[in-house]
Design a protein that fits this description.
395 residues, Rossmann fold, elongated, binds S-adenosylmethionine
Length: 395
């Protein structure tokens, strides 16, 4: 797949995001990350106590005539996002106190359903130079779905593992983009608000799948596109400034996607469900033979329809009959019943695993075409998200 509607995939397009979004078909995007203008409305220059000028966001792309104009703009691009996003997709919008509350209201008015607000706590924020307010040390991300009924992607277990087996919380401690990760042109920051790759890494990893299409309407230095490519996702990104399109494109070209096996969500994979009836159909359990409790005090005969008959009297599923014996409402029959093979008792749960291994395993190895040497995957240095030298050459 190289195109989506009229637009090339895996490309940063130059233009106004509202116009470009109109070229995308309905319900076709899996994930949107949007870092829109903040509408900071800075008045005049800001200086540090030592009289050096503060490098604040003062760009033309952040200027709006009024709050009403900003709201109108926000409504237009968010409505388009709502149209293009799949029911299984989700959207992330990042902002500061200047705009995030307005964005949040508009999102909800359009019909998006908010799942979380994430606080990105900056470990190294810019100080409040005037000393007139608290140090503004965070940004807010809203994570939302198309509607309340959306069947969205969330890799819960992977996030838990990333957080040392504790549920990933909604406060994320991540440094602002600095040092070698910062894209530079002629030694100067290429973009005033380049977001850290870690932030996009966590978002894309947790709420999309390899092969999905990730859209960024406000690409800037191309952080979303770069991380999406690295994580084996497709991307479509927009920026209205030629300069940023060039920078982002050159940045993305350097990225080498991770190999597919490293991107599989192995930890999320749930066991395929094998009903007891499958074991009978395949002859793992014979019709007419007996299932036994571990202490052999109870036995039940297997019927042709996969029900079991307890002591010639009560009939039901393996679960219902074990629950009845144990005097419980519900019970997992897989852990209760055994079958005799020779002189040995074998758990029917073990038979289920044998069945899974034999008949259901191959469907999960979709990436068989890649050969690995002794199962070691070699990743080159250039494969890292923040490569040694982020100086852009061609602009
Ligand atoms: C906050 S920055 C995004 C920074 C980006 N997340 C990064 O990591 O570099 C917003 C970007 O949106 C672009 N922009 C502003 N208005 C736009 C519009 N109407 N259509 C497309 N791009 C726009 C600006 O040129 C700017 O690069």
């Amino acid at each position: 797949m190289t195109k989506l509607g009229a637009l090339d995939i895996n490309k940063i397009h130059k233009g106004d995001c509202i116009e470009l979004l109109k070229k995308i078909p309905d319900n076709s995007i899996d994930l949107i990350f949007a870092d829109p203008p903040y509408n900071l409305q800075l008045n005049g220059e800001l200086y540090r106590p030592n009289q050096t000028k503060v490098d604040a966001v003062n760009d033309a792309w952040d200027k709006f005539e009024s709050k009403e104009e900003y709201d109108k703009f926000t409504t237009l691009w968010l409505k388009e996002c709502h149209r293009v996003i799949k029911n299984s997709g989700s959207i992330w919008v990042i902002g500061t106190y200047h705009n995030i509350f307005r964005v949040g209201t508009i999102l909800q008015n359009i019909g998006f359903w908010i799942l979380n607000d994430i606080i990105w706590i900056k470990t190294n924020p810019m100080p409040n130079f005037k000393g007139t307010r608290f140090n503004n040390a965070h940004e807010t991300l809203i994570w939302a779905t198309k509607s309340k009924e959306s069947n969205y992607t969330f890799h819960y277990h992977s996030m838990k593992v990333m957080n040392d087996d504790l549920q990933m919380r909604s406060d994320w401690l991540i440094p602002i983009c600095q040092g070698e990760e910062r894209i530079k042109v002629n030694g100067q920051k290429a973009h005033s608000t380049q977001k850290p790759a870690e932030l996009l890494f966590r978002i894309i990893l947790s709420t999309s799948n390899p092969g999905d299409i990730v859209l960024d309407p406000f690409s800037g230095s191309g952080t979303t596109a770069a991380v999406a490519k690295r994580l084996g996702r497709n991307f479509i990104a927009f920026d209205r400034e030629e300069f940023y399109v060039k920078i982002g494109t050159e940045r993305v070209e350097k990225i080498i996607p991770l190999s597919k096996p490293l991107l599989e969500y192995k930890i999320e994979r749930r066991k395929p469900k094998v009903p007891f009836g499958n074991l009978i159909e395949k002859g793992y359990v014979k019709i007419g033979e007996y299932l036994y409790s571990k202490d052999e005090k109870h036995k039940a005969q297997v019927q042709a329809d996969a029900s079991i008959l307890l002591e010639g009297e009560v009939v039901g599923s393996i679960h219902k009959i074990s629950a009845k014996i144990l005097n419980k409402e519900n019970h997992n029959g897989w852990t209760f019943w055994y079958i005799k093979r020779g002189n040995k008792l074998i758990s029917i749960d073990q038979l289920r695993h044998d069945y899974e291994n034999k008949f259901l395993k191959s469907s999960s190895s979709a990436y068989n075409e890649i050969q690995f040497e002794n199962n070691i995957v070699h990743e080159t240095e250039e494969n890292l998200l923040s490569y040694g030298n982020n100086e852009i050459q061609s602009v």
